[in-house]
Amino acid sequence: MDDTHTAPRPTVLITGCSSGIGAAAAQHMARRGWRVFPTARRHEDVDRLREAGWDDALALDLTDSTSIASAVHEVATRTGGRLDALFNNGAYGQPGAVEDLSRATLREQLETNLLGTHELTTQVLPLMRSQGHGRIVQNSSVLGFIALPYRGAYVCSKFALEGLTDTLRQELVGSGIHVSLIQPGPIASRFRDNAHRAFRARIDAEHSAHAPTYQAVEQRLAGAGASTPFTLEAGAVAAKLAHALEHPRPKARYHVTVPTHLFAALKRLLPTRWLDRVLLAATASERRPG
């Protein structure tokens, strides 16, 4: 059979593919016939991806402009200037009370979760504009629209990402480029392990006014106690991603877990003070030393 005129596979660039949501998303979209460019920050993770058969795996560090530009250039070179979709998934969580976040610590959180994501998006937009279509999907969080104590840096980054994304979506109307947000909630991944390392590296828990509470925070991050209720596997996010990339009319927002649906409803219905009470009650056990 002559397949010389067969349409090329659609292409997607995905950040944060060393594990969790990024890895699941890459596998899911590959099974659906997409050519996936999975990326990871650490070169050893990129090597591991290539050893697993991901020939298009690339290094991409969201805190490094040169790394971002190099990855986008490599994708464009390999595809002849084509990129159908971008899934901005790479991120980490920096725990700690707001008053214990140094300027440098908050800047590091924003460099990865917001500024690097923004720069990567602006780098791929010319490719999408030149071809007249594209999909940009941002992996946000339930903490992109509600706040929880001791997660201020991450909340800040995701609230900002949602606002920037809403603006971008409006500005791209009529361009053929669609923009969506995914709001996962609790997903089984290495996110807690990475957050634990960030907490120990950047928060002076011993000398903080929040020292008694930090004992419980660290126990939670280390995996002590009950697991987070309603936790889903990463494939639940990948299924929403597929809809956002393939449906002719993708949604602006995709809620994934029960907490995301619940808190979105409560935010619409409750006054702020009432919502605060609900959120503090829901997280009370996390702040009590075991």
TrEMBL record:
GO terms for molecular function: oxidoreductase activity. SUPFAM superfamilies: NAD(P)-binding Rossmann-fold domains. It comes from the Bacteria. PROSITE patterns: ADH_SHORT. Coiled coil: none annotated. InterPro entries: NAD(P)-bd_dom_sf (IPR036291), Sc_DH/Rdtase_CS (IPR020904), SDR_fam (IPR002347). Pfam families: adh_short. Keywords: Oxidoreductase. Belongs to the short-chain dehydrogenases/reductases (SDR) family. This is Short-chain dehydrogenase/reductase SDR. It comes from Halorhodospira halophila (strain DSM 244 / SL1) (Ectothiorhodospira halophila (strain DSM 244 / SL1)).
